From TrEMBL:
Residues annotated as domain Carbohydrate kinase PfkB: 64-370
Protein name: fructokinase
Role, per record: May play an important role in maintaining the flux of carbon towards starch formation.
A GO cellular-component term linked to this record: cytosol
Record-linked InterPro entries: Carboh/pur_kinase_PfkB_CS (IPR002173), PfkB_Carbo_kinase (IPR050306), PfkB_dom (IPR011611), Ribo/fructo_kinase (IPR002139), Ribokinase-like (IPR029056)
Coiled coil spans: none
GO molecular function: ATP binding; fructokinase activity
Record-stated family: Belongs to the carbohydrate kinase PfkB family.
Amino acid sequence: MALHSATLCFRTVPAHPRNSVKLGLITVKPSGFSCPVSPPIVRLNVKGNAYSGDGAPETNESPLVVSFGEMLIDFVPTISGLALAEAPAFKKAPGGAPANVAVGIARLGGSAAFIGKVGEDEFGYMLVNTLKENNVNSEGMRFDPGARTALAFVTLRKDGEREFMFYRNPSADMLLQESELDFDLIKKAKIFHYGSISLITDPCKSAHIAAAKAAKDAGVILSYDPNLRLPLWPSAESAREGILSIWEIADIIKISEEEISFLTKGEDPYDDAVVRKLFHPNLKLLLVTEGPDGCRYYTKDFSGRVKGFKVDAVDTTGAGDAFVAGILSQLALDLSLLQKEDKLRDALKFANACGALTVTERGAIPALPTKEAVLSAMLKSVS
């Protein structure tokens, strides 16, 4: 199946009235690190990698990674294994996939910025303060006085399926306009990271396209994690079209097994030939996350698998974002990883450890690990 994209061209989807609220409920197979696996069989060799053994950055100032998209409040049940309607109480936690990545990079000692929009409300102020407290550049954040900050309720049921319920349409993140973008910040980045939720409706869709084009024109590496959330799209087909419409501008793409099946209309996500259909001519790295089993990687010249880590999972929210933060933090320091398989594999072990540690606590941002914690976990796994 050839995947042809109409680059930077989207079907317009009408926004809901500003005074309306749309609820979306979905159950999906977990793609997080939700069950234990054996530790990596390859012994960690810290010397010569993008990260240093003592946890200190190798450069005085890390290259900037700018994330773009949604930042919201996740509500996670205080008791695991229950459906949303059965949960007696919820813990509020800052989240949103691109924001999780930004904070994850900063926690790992990297330089990160986030561009997005929140409501001019208590939750919005809380989210911007969260960025500042985690040393994430928030100059690109905007407040909307007429829309609320988005909310999401997330749980992992006993049957292993995740449930999501979103309170948005229109939430403030959907209303970011091109005129509100900080283009100077975007052009300073070494990597520009984004998802697909910001592509669903205008004006944020147009802002997304303009931001990605500005980054591309400035020679910035583009990183894309579709982060499929079907209830937020008008239909499954519009989600597939929207996600693929910007596929061929990305330099790095991270997808899950479920997203491969969705994008290829049901083909086997474990078949390398199927995955290779998603590898476009200009792509530098395609990553497939397999939850507790680790990840697969594909470049033009080589491919392989890196095993995951054994942990006791509490909440899988944010595990994939922590993985992305882990690998982007390493690529920002050393893009030669894209050509050197041994170094890439070591960086992916680091990313897998980031994801694994994140599932040991509730919430996404509260659970994102530090570089010291990740390196300690990696060393323990081979001791």
